[in-house]
Amino acid sequence: MRIGVFGGTFDPVHNGHVLPVEAAAMKFDLRRVIYVPARLSPHKDAAPTDARHRVAMLALALQGRPDW
To answer: Would you say 6 and 35 are in contact if contact means Cβ atoms under 8 Å apart?
Structure first.
């Protein structure tokens, strides 16, 4: 089974996280994509939103989408 892994802080999660992954999943025939929330962003100085909230935002953003 072909599996993709996509990491990011997802703070907040947005279509720039979701749509390219969907395109890659179709292009590379991925059967599953695992999203991995990172603890800190290398691009932001501000403290990240609590991890529980970022995971919840990610779950809402992916709700109803294929598991890829």
So the answer is: yes
